[in-house]
Structure formats: C-alpha cells, structure tokens
Amino acid sequence: MDILLAIAIMALGAVVLGAALGYASIKFKVEGDPLVDKIEAILPQTQCGQCGYPGCKPYAEAIAKGEAEINLCPPGGMEGVQRLADLLGREVKPLDAEEKPKQVAIIDENTCIGCTLCIQACPVDAIIGAAKQLHVIIGPQCTGCELCLPPCPVECIHMEPIAENIDNWKWKYPVVELKAAPMREAA
Amino acid sequence: MLMNLFKFKGGVKPPTNKTQSLGKPIAQAPIPSRLVVPLHQSIGGTPRPVVQAGDKVLKGQLIGEADGWISAAVHAPTSGTVVEVAMHVQPHPSGLDALCVVIEPDGKDEWIPREPVNYKALTPEQVRERLQQAGVVGLGGAVFPTHGKLTASKTVPMEEMVINGAECEPFITCDDLLMRERAEEVVRGIGIFRDLLQPKRVLIGIEDNKPEAAAAMRAAVQAVGENFEVIPVPTLYPAGGAKQLIRVLTGKEVPAAKRSTDLGVQCFNVATAYTAWRAITHGEPVVSRLVTVTGNVHEPRNYEVLIGTPMDELLKLATPHPDTDGIIMGGPMMGFLVPQPDVPVVKATNCLIAHSDRLFPPKAPEMPCIRCGSCAQACPHELQPFEMYWFSRAKNFGKTQEYHIFDCIECGCCSFVCPSRIPLVQYFRFAKSEIWAREREKNAADQAKERFEFKQLREEREKAEKAEKLAKAAAAQAAKKAAEAAAAAAAGDTAATSPQAADAPAIDAEKAARQAAIQAAMERAKAQREAAQPKNTDNLTPDQQQAAAEIEARRAAARLAVPEAPANEKSE
Amino acid sequence: MSHYLFILVGAVLVNNVVLVKILGLCPFMGVSKKLETAYGMGAATTFVLTMATGASYIIDHYLLIPFGLEYLRTLSFIVTIAAIVQLTEMVIAKTSPTLQQTLGIYLPLITTNCAVLGVPLLNIANGHNFVESLLFGAGSAVGFSLVLILFAGIRERIEGADVPVHFRGAAIAMVTAGLMALAFMGFAGLDKYQ
Amino acid sequence: MFAPAPFLLKDTSVSQVMTQVCIALVPGIAAYAWLVGPAILVQLVIASLAALLAEAAMLRLRKKPLALFLSDGSAIVTAWLIALTFPPLAPWWLVATGTIFAIIVAKHLYGGLGQNPFNPAMVAFGVCIVSFPALMSQWPSVGLQLPLVDQVNVILGLAPRIDALSSATPLDALKTALKLDEGAFDVTHLLANQDIYGNFAGRGWEWVAVGYLLGGLWMWQRKLITWHVPVAFTGALVAVSGALWLYNPAHFASPLFHLLSGGAMLGAFFIATDPVSGCTTPRGKLIFGAGAGLLAYIIRVFGGYPDGVAFAVLLMNLCAPVIDLLTQPRIFGMKDAGKGGKA
C-alpha cells in the first residue's frame, strides 16, 4: 500500500513538473542560434577549409553545435583559439597545425597561361583576369588561403609573407628586463 | 591680463633644460650635400611622386601630389637635381623604409616663381586648397594637414580658437624663438585661421616660463591691430598638449572620440600659423622648419632647416660632444631615438637632442608594478595607467580598452613618475598597435566574408541559370519534335482537307516563330555561357585596374625581353 | 525579528555555503574565471536555490511527512531541483545564449550542485519553518553568489599576474579559495553573539 | 638596443618607497619598545630574517634576480608588520612560520611583488590566529618587569611561558570582562582600571597607536599614501563605535578607546593602505577603508577574535577587485563617472 502511495505521489510530481517544463519549452522557444554569428566573427574568414569544413560559417556552426574543436583554424592562430575559448568557456588547446605568418599569393607573370582555374578556386574573388589572359591577384583582398595553389596546372602561384611597412608596423612588446643588465642605446 | 584659467589634473614638472638653446637667435642651416625628402610627411594619404630621377627641380617645386583631402603636398626644399625616387629609412621608431625623393642641391637655392596673394580676396575653399597645395601641416608634431582642421562644425558655433605656444616639452625652444623673432608673421597667420573659422575669441596660450615670447606676441598683436588674447599658462607638462591647453584656456574637455570642433574649439600651433602666412601671402610652400638642436652638444641653438636635411649633418653644426651615442627626435618625454643618424629632418621634427648616458642616465631595471597609483595621479587624462599596464602586459586588450587606452595621449607622465621604472607608455603603444592590427584584420575578414558570400551567391545564380538553360533546351527539343510532327501531319493533311490548308501558313508561321525563339534562346545561352566564364574583370576599382594594367605592361615588357615566349598564342 | 536577521547573516557570511560549509565547490571553481559569467551563475543559482528551498519545504511538509514518505526526501528533492534547473536553462537560453554557452555544462550541473540539495536538507535538519527555510535558502544563495563574484574578480586580476608556471590555473585558484576561507573565518562567532 | 621615451625620469624607486614606509613605522616601534617591552625588537629581527630567507629561496626557485628583489624592501615591510601584529613574546617559530607562509603563499605563489591579492602580513596573522589561537592571544601585561634576556629566552623557548605573560590585550580583556560579568560592571567602571586600560585605551598600547598615527601622517605628508583609506577607516570606526556608545555607554566602549586599541591605527595607516591588495580608485579607497573599519569593529566587538583588523583587511582584500571595477573614475573628456565603453 505504502509503495503504491509513494509511486502515486512521485507520478503526480512527475506529471506536474513535466507539464510545467512542457509549457516553458513552448514559451521560451529559441529560434536560430545567435552564437554562430559570434563565433564566425572571430574566425578569420579566409574560407580556406583547412579546418575540414567548407568555409568559415560551416565551421562556426560545427563549433556552436559542439561537433568541432576550437583549435582547427590555422589562419586564426593561437590568438583565435584563445578568443574562441574565452567566448565559449572551453579550455585552450594548442593549434592543430603549424602557425604561419600572414601571406599573400603571387602569380608569376611569365608562367601563367591564363587557364582561369585559380579564379574559380579563389573563394573571395581576389583574382582577376579572363581566359587566356594573364591573371592578377589583388593583394589586399587575398586572404592567403592557398586554395589557388593546387588547381594551377603550371604551378605559377606562390605564397609570399606580407612585408612589414610603416603603415602596418606594430610596436613591440616591451622586454621585461629583470636582470640588472645595463640598458645602453646604440645609435 | 585677468582671466580665469582652468586646470587639468595630473601633469609633472620635469627639469625644463630650455635655457641652453635660448642664448642665440635662429640661424639658417646651410644647404646639405643631399636632401632626402620623404613623401609621407603628414597624417593621411601618401602623396604621389610627380618627379623622376634626373629631373631638375626648383626650390618650392611640387614633388609629391596630395592624395585625397586628408593629405598634404610635398615640395623640393631647394633647387637641384632629383637623384632618385626610392625607399629610405625614415625618422620613425620602426626604422623601416618609405618612399623618398632624393635631391642633390645645386647650391643656387633658386625659388619657383612665387606669387604673393591677398588671401582676403580668396574664398575660404581657395585658401584651404592653397594650404593643402603648400603642404601646410601641424608643426607641433602631429602633422595633421592644417586645411583639414579649418572647417567649422556645421552644428556647433565656433567659440574659441586656441593657439598653442605653450611648448611644454623640456629642451625644445623652437616655438619660443619663433614667437620672439617672427611674432608679427605668426599673428598674421593666426589672422588667416581666424578668418576661416570665425571664432568668437582667439586665445594664445604661452607657458609662463617664456615671458619674452609672450611680450613679443602681445606687441605683435597690438601692432597688427588684432584682438587676440595672449595668456600665460602655468608651466606644467603637458600643458602644451592640444587637449590640455584647450582645457586650461577654455575649460572644455575634448574626449578621444570627438573632434574639438564639435565642442566649438580648435587648436593650432604657432609655427603652423607662421607657415600658413608664408604659404598664402608669399607663395612659399613648407620647405623648411625651425629645429632646436640641443642636448649633449657644445652649442645648442635653433636652426631654420630644409626638410630632408640628414640629421647628423644638422647635429654637426652644434658640435656634439664625443660621447654622443644617439639622436632623439622630439622632446625627451615623447621623442624617440632615430634608427640611424642620417635620417632626414621632416615636418614633424621640432627638436633634435644629442643623446648620451651622461645626459639621460640609463634606466634602472624594470620592477613589477606595486599599484602605488602615482601614475594615475600624474595622468593628465585621468586614466589609470597601472590597470592598463596590467592588462597590456597580460595581452588582454579588451580590458585595456575598458580602461580607455585610446584616450591615452602617450605624454609619458606615468613613466616619468613610476617608482618601478616601468616603460608604461611603451606598453600602451604596444597594446594600441595590436588593437589596430586586429581592427585591420577584422575589416579584412569582413571584406573577405562579403566577397565570399557574393561569390557563393553568384555561383548559386549561375547554377540556377544553367539548370534553367538545360530545362529550356530540353523543352525546346521537345517542342521542336512536336512541331516537326505537327508539320509533317499538317503537310499530310493539306491535300486532304482544304479548309485546313488555310491554317497551314499559320502553323508555319508559328513554327518559324518557335524556331526563331529557339535560336534566340541558344544565342542567349551561348552568350550566357560566355558570360559565365570566370572573367571577373568587371567592377574593378581604379586601383585594381591600375594594378592589372601595370602587370599587363610588365608582361608586355617581359615578352619583349623573351621573344620565344608564346606571345602569339596569348595575344589571340 | 533579529532571529531572522541572524539566520540571514549566518547563511550569507558566518556559515557561508562555499567557504565554510565547503558545498558547491564545483561551480565555484568552474565558472569563476570571468566576472560576467560569475554574475550569471550567481543569479541562476540564487534563483534555483531559493525556489528549491521553498518547493522542497512544501513537498516535505505537505506530501512526504503526512504520508510518512520521508525516505523519499532526497529523491523527490532532486527531481524538483532538476525541473527548476531545466526551467532556468530554458529562460537563459532564451535571454542570453552567450551566457548559456559560457556557463556551459555548469548550468545543468546546478542540479548536482551539492549546495542546492544540501541547503533544503539542512533546513529540515535544523527544523526551519517556511519563512526560515526561504531566508536560509536565499541567504545561502546570496552567500554563494557573493563569494563567487568576489572570487571571479580576484581571478580576473590574477590572470595577469606572474604566477609561477606550476601554480597557474586551478592551483592558484585553490590557494585563493583557501585564503578566502581564511578571511571568512573572521566572521566566526558573529551569529552566536548575545 | 631600443630605449623608449620618456628619457627623463623622476628620482624615485620601489626601495625608496619601502624604506620610507619602514621609517614611518619607527615612532610606533619606539613607543612599543619603550612602553611595552624591547622584545619587539627581537621579533622584528626574527621576522626580517625569516622574510629575507623565504624571499631569497622563492626568488631562487623562480629564477628571478636575487639582489634586485631582496633590496626592494617589500619583504622587510611585510616582516615588520607581522612582528608588530603578533604578541611580542610569541615564540620565535610562530613568527617565523607566519612570515614564511606570508612570503611564500601569499606573495610568491601569486607572482611576487605587486601581484598578491591578499595582504601577506594579514594572511600570516590570520593563519596563525586560526591555527594557534592560544599562543596568539597571550600578551604580556604592560608594566611587567622582566629583563630583556628573560624575554628573549621566552621567545626562543628557553624559558617557560609563565602566567604573567599570558594576559590579554586591553581589547580582549574588555570583551571577556563584559561577557563574564553579564552587565555587573559597565564599561566606564572597567576602563577605570588604569593598570590595564591606561588613560584611555590600554596602558602603553595607546601611545604605540599614537606613534603609528604620527608615522602615518608623515607618510601622507610625503604623498606615500592618500588620505582616503585612513580617513574612511577611522571615520567608519568612529561612526559605528560612537553610535553604539551613545546608544548604550554601559555596554560599548567609546570611539577613542576603539581608535587607539588593537591594530586600528596600524591598520588604518599601514595595512589597509597597501595599494597592491587594496583598492586604487579614489572612491574605491573610501569604500575599502570604510568597509575595513566597519568590519574591524564588528569582528572585534561581536565576533570570536580578540581583534578584527586583520580579518577586516583580508575581507576587504577579497572585495577590492570588484570594488575597483565598480568605482572607475571619470576620465578626461567624459561627462560622468562610471564605467562604459568609449566615451
């Protein structure tokens, strides 16, 4: 008898709570996933696919769903991993690839045969040119994704690191000088 | 002069060291053996070179054309021959190269024809344009193109114009001597600015350790018959910072995110006013400036120096002591050691200080911050440098922005008072440039995203078009067959039934129309196929077109050089 | 009246649920890296804990005791808490997805936060009436949120400190928690003052 | 090598700051040694040695330059504060343990100088009073005539800890008396006993507190500290003790008694003003000082410990980062105070 009573009471509780939760799930239904946008804002938008997803947005979606690790984006670098970790409260993991300096693709003008294959490969339309005409990469728009390298039949594209100039030069981190070394300035 | 002065919080009183270079009047520095004139000498767009190696130039001749509105032209400082237009090390802490015009002077110092103008006859637009063409920029050190500051806010009436003769940095005396010796021209230059901006009052702020300059300016104001107020301000570094001086003279505080004109106030340096006067009424563009040469030298003095003069040549005039081991450009609080001694004097160079360990003892090693708060008390912008340092050091840049790192004017007061000898300003510069770099990356990423999405959209559209085309082709095929069948049937029927014969031409017409339509569709499809070829030559900016054109030109050149290149194949 | 005050002060400070009773350490360590998250977690836990004490009192007094089912206490309390947590999660998911993401696993884990179960059980052990239970629950929750937020503030600052490598992260956080508990021992005896 | 601007620097350094703090402690120490007993000097030496040893060991382990950090004086300041807050005849190992704990756990585990969230001296006090409550509550009665040699022997454990040594501080004595007598005596009556309570707050001790006050004022005059924390601390203490004293003078001691007894003056000028573990914004400092003063009063009067300054400071240390965040000052060009993105 007691046990039946217990079961009855627990069942009653279950029904009441279930009803409350069911009502709440309708009332507080969430449409879409605003998190994806925040993740995508951190990704470098190179659209390079090095993460194994076809572009930055699919990767962001995968991260938001918890399907992908946050350390798969080499162009984003460790900094990107750090920021994703901060956003999502996940542990920082070492990057799943080597970190490279920022690069741009350069087309060797003497070898290019104007096949347009690289133009089709470029995810951001940073290559201009027409069939049987020499192609040119628009430097500022190149994301350095390297996707144009494999399709080129004559291997006329190579990557060059972006040179430092006065406009993009950055102040260096002040060296924390803890040893009593004399600081001398050389002119 | 009875006037209520305001105060800014913080500030420091470093030893001024100004008397050394005040002993002698301004001297004309001789024309050096070679002038290296950087094209980018102001904030804003980099001027485009308009001369080539071998060109003969006259003093004041345009060599770099302003690029955009916020940009100022660059001129040949003396007559001579252009040796090269090439990359040279800049007087910039980075020690990197930038494009310079190198001129070998012919010693004649021959001016271009100068046309004196009465600026009152010109419209304000014309005056501003002339200032831009003459390369007039803020000579206090910020080198912002002056014409860009001479437009009043549309909504806020211009109340005060502040003229900065405070010159608060230790060692520097070039503005002091300028005001002493050329006060009248300074006052007349201020008159130009006044006429353009129409402020209610003009306030000339001069630190009270320069009574001679203040007296000279007062006399000049009287002589010219203006109503400018010359106001001595308390000597306190950085009273000469534009925002601090505005605060002291008007009580207004200009936040980092606002322009001073939004508050009805604008600030100019006295040297800027002087060059503006020379440029407008004498037709002389900015080809020289006053430079204090001081520090570890025998004869500190102020010189009028041609832009582009190598700094070591200039320093020699003051005979530096043998233990000099570097040159500081600017004052000891905000200046920097130039990367190599032969970098040129530019429009921003107000002072050269010969550096030696005797004059500036090497800093004690950096200790950890003890959060003593001295920096916060010294900060003229009422920031909390120790917090900004804490997060800059940890590279937590978001936090540095929460502590308003971009309101920091890098005056160096915090580093000056820090008992732990922390190069605070250095940390802030580091953090700022990292944040800027991120901003750039973010912009690039946004642009890339946009372009990627556009490309995807285009591919989608092309796919859809292709599918549609295929469907159309299939439909056309079917229709054609149907039409043929119908035609055959019609032909067979014609003989049999005469009433239907009347319909035949109609059917024929219909068929013809259909065929024409098919033809047209095929034409269209073909055209579309061609259009769908990744050509991507539309919608190019002039820059891109130019880049492409350059590449084409190079390619043509390459082809000329290598005749066996498959030129024919390509040129089809 | 002062009796209620003592219960409240006692729950917030003197017998702080985290630093003195050592309950609820999991979220205390887990979501105190950032102040913002700590605010969210504090609010969520405060809500859940206050609701749970109220609900559990009602269940205990009007369902379990009348029917002699005290042995079902733990089970029924956990079920109730789980439902309240689920509700909270839905609300947070609706109002602040970032908070939901940053709280991550700790949000559903409020269910297993021993403080949330411990406080209702302590209420029964101490024989608190309904108002006392609510006060004790709310006080414990406020105490939890308070130390969580203060802890997050300290951890944000320690983030930039030159902590020896072997002590970075959890180690220094535990040391800090220990020193915080030391500081809270200063309140000892306050609730016994006559 | 690159040397950043500014090239001119003011003549100041961390060791100068720390030395001045030590100098400011001298009047208090002198009064202490003169009126309470010279044993404090021995304790100062013991604590300093322990601090320097612990500091050196940690610096060596952390591979930091020894000479630079040992000479900065911060360890000495911590050591002196520990010695001054411990009972003057506490066994040497207690002082040494407290100091070593402070230097290693409260200071170096957080990265050393300038990075500790808790005041190391107060951590030492807290740890010891929780772990060794009896030893930490044995104060010699002032006026006890015991030769210095015997006092040193007591400290070093060579002589037995006789009963005369184990009295309580005036503050503790008053609290115990009030509790035991259940209102049989009132405060004024108790305080009339000049042997324990001196003229107003404890024989001898009151003048030590005045010594700290003088040192603190000198630090304020030298701009080593700002007025905020001491004023807020003493203000809060006076306000709350004054209110209760007016409410029931028979049961609560006067503000003057509270100001000059226990660690109030030392806390107000030397401990709560520590910028590393305290608040740094002006408003934050006020809140910090007031909070510390209030908590000190509550704990010393209503709580279970003889004095509340140490715990009050530790508790406010806890709150300091959050208080600082919430009291960000107005910056140049901003209309109102308060946090908020770019103005």
UniProtKB/TrEMBL annotation, chain C:
A Pfam family: Rnf-Nqr
Bilayer topology: Multi-pass membrane protein
E.C. number(s) listed in UniProt: 7.-.-.-
Location of this chain's protein in the cell: Cell inner membrane; Endomembrane system
GO biological process terms, semicolon-separated: electron transport chain
Swiss-Prot/TrEMBL keywords: Cell inner membrane, Cell membrane, Electron transport, Membrane, Translocase, Transmembrane, Transmembrane helix, Transport
Regions crossing the membrane: 6-26, 38-59, 71-91, 103-122, 134-154, 166-190
GO cellular component, one term: endomembrane system
Function description: Part of a membrane-bound complex that couples electron transfer with translocation of ions across the membrane.
Family: Belongs to the NqrDE/RnfAE family.
Assembly and interaction partners: The complex is composed of six subunits: RnfA, RnfB, RnfC, RnfD, RnfE and RnfG.
Protein name (record): Ion-translocating oxidoreductase complex subunit A
Organism, as annotated: Dechloromonas agitata
Biological classification of the source: Bacteria, Pseudomonadati, Pseudomonadota, Betaproteobacteria, Rhodocyclales
